[in-house]
Amino acid sequence: MPANGKHRRKKSTFLTRGLVAAGTGGAVVALPLIGATGAHAAEQAAPAAASGAVVTAAAQVKAQAAPAAQTAAPKTYSVVAGDYLSKIAAEHDVAGGWQRLYSDNRQVVGENPSLILPGMKLTLGAKSTAKAAAPKAAAPAAPKAKAKVTQKAAPTGEQTRASRSTERAAAPAAAQSSGSTQTASSGWVTPVAGGISTSYRTAGAMWSSGYHTGADFIVSSGTTVRAVGAGTVVSAGWSGAYGNEVVIKHADGNYSQYAHLSSLAVSAGQSVSGGQQIGLSGSTGNSTGPHLHFEIRTSPSYGSDVDPLAYLRQHGVSV
Question: Domain with 108 in it: what CATH number?
Answer without folding.
Answer: 3.10.350.10
